[in-house]
Design a protein that fits this description.
Layout (H helix, E strand, L loop, with lengths): L8 H19 L2 E2 H7 L4 H13 L3 E6 L9 E5 L5 E6 L4 E6 L4 E6 L8 H18 L7 E8 L2 E3 L4 E5 L4 E4 L1 H6 L6 E5 H11 L9 E6 L4 E7 L2 E2 L29 H8 L6 H22 L3 E5 L1 H4 L3 H13 L10 E4 L6 H14 L4
Parallel strand pairs: 4-7, 7-11, 12-15, 15-16
Antiparallel strand pairs: 1-3, 2-3, 4-5, 5-6, 8-9, 9-10, 12-13, 13-14
């Protein structure tokens, strides 16, 4: 972009290309005529961009559409298989190669203990990447980008893991280290964000633009927020720390303070997932969710994690009731509460969507 705020010719051309790529992605299969009609670009521009994208192998012909007089229309779609991504996901403890749409082509286990330093992790990542690519006979030059999904607080702009209890890392300069090793772009983000983005990217209801993920297991209670279709990271990359809402009679938390709701839930479930313990945990989790709803006003709440998977229908109904009983104007809210539908693959799908959005931005 030029200093005067106007787009340069190159920026304008890139934006137009991205507009068409995202339009085709949103529709699945379209004709060139549909693109002319719906995207605010001239026929000549659309034709030129379609030619360029075809030569780049980013789009392909999906078939022949119905004719409305004259020549029959070609049906176009994105060629997701034209590019490969490498994704490391801490939650599933695996390194995988996917296509642009998150379909896993090959995967290898990749776990490491909490004593592994950031430098050691990056060295192991490089070695395992080489092994995985050799296994599927793919050269690193064919890789479009890499995505790394970590628990904790992640600075996506600076490329750092600011803090991760699970990995025992502080201010880990992951981006700088990996960019010295790989010839392709590397993106990092936190687990909860990528789970939510993955789930959102597969929603059938396009009217939902604001969503809240609640991530809960026996070691943490966190969240992620999506507004107007975009993940919210916060001004300090510390959004989503829902487990640190203050409650009474809570033991010392992993953060070092007393009074955290997360620590209370962990204490309640420390002896097992019996009905009485789950019932009490549901009340505290309900406090967190209803507080978040009152602040952020989502239309969708996605429940993800071990605790929610163990809830009976009766306890899930109790959680729903607690939430709606403790939010303002519950009768007039458009709010749906549901389980995750992608399960363990959500964070991998989310990182693939994240890479796609950052590679072909339209804003």
């Amino acid at each position: 972009m030029k200093n005067n705020g106007f787009l340069s010719h190159a920026d304008s051309a890139s934006l137009n290309k991205n507009l068409i790529i995202n339009y085709i992605k949103s529709k699945g299969i379209v004709s060139q005529t549909q693109i002319w009609e719906d995207v605010n670009l001239s026929r000549a521009s659309v034709s030129q961009i379609i030619k360029q994208l075809t030569e780049m192998d980013l789009i392909k012909v999906a078939g022949i559409g119905e004719s409305k007089g004259g020549r029959r229309r070609l049906a176009l779609t994105l060629n997701y298989d034209s590019k490969q991504l490498i994704i490391y996901d801490w939650m599933t403890k695996q390194l995988c190669v996917t296509n642009l749409n998150g379909v896993v082509i090959s995967a290898e286990p990749f776990g490491f203990d909490s004593g592994t330093s950031p430098e050691q992790f990056c060295q192991i990542l490089y070695q395992k990447t080489e092994i995985l690519l050799k296994k599927i006979n793919v050269d690193s030059s064919q890789i479009f980008a890499m995505g790394l999904v970590f628990p904790g607080l992640v600075d996506t702009i600076g490329g750092k893991v600011l803090y991760s209890l699970e990995m025992n890392w502080n201010d880990a300069e992951i981006f700088d280290m990996t960019q010295k090793m790989f010839r392709f772009p590397v993106y990092i983000d936190r687990t909860a964000n990528m789970i939510l983005l993955g789930e959102y990217s597969r929603l059938q209801d396009s009217s939902i633009r604001n969503a809240l993920l609640i991530l809960s297991d026996n070691t943490r209670l966190g969240s992620a927020l999506l507004q107007d279709g975009k993940i919210i990271h916060g001004g300090n990359n510390m959004n989503g720390e829902l487990g640190h809402i203050r409650v009474a009679d809570s033991p010392v938390c992993n953060c070092g303070k007393k009074g955290c709701l997360e620590a209370k839930v962990i204490e309640i479930l420390s002896h097992g997932y019996d009905t009485a313990s789950l019932s009490l945990a549901v009340e505290y989790i309900g406090i967190a969710i209803s507080t978040a709803v009152n602040i952020f006003d989502p239309c969708l709440i996605l429940l993800y994690g071990d605790i929610f998977e163990k809830l009976s229908d009766r306890l899930l109904s109790r959680l729903n009731s607690y939430i709606f009983d403790n939010i303002v104007n519950s009768d007039s809210r458009n709010l749906k509460i549901t389980y995750s539908f992608l399960g363990r693959s959500a964070s991998i799908t989310g990182m693939c969507e994240n890479i796609f959005r950052k590679s072909f931005p339209i804003v």
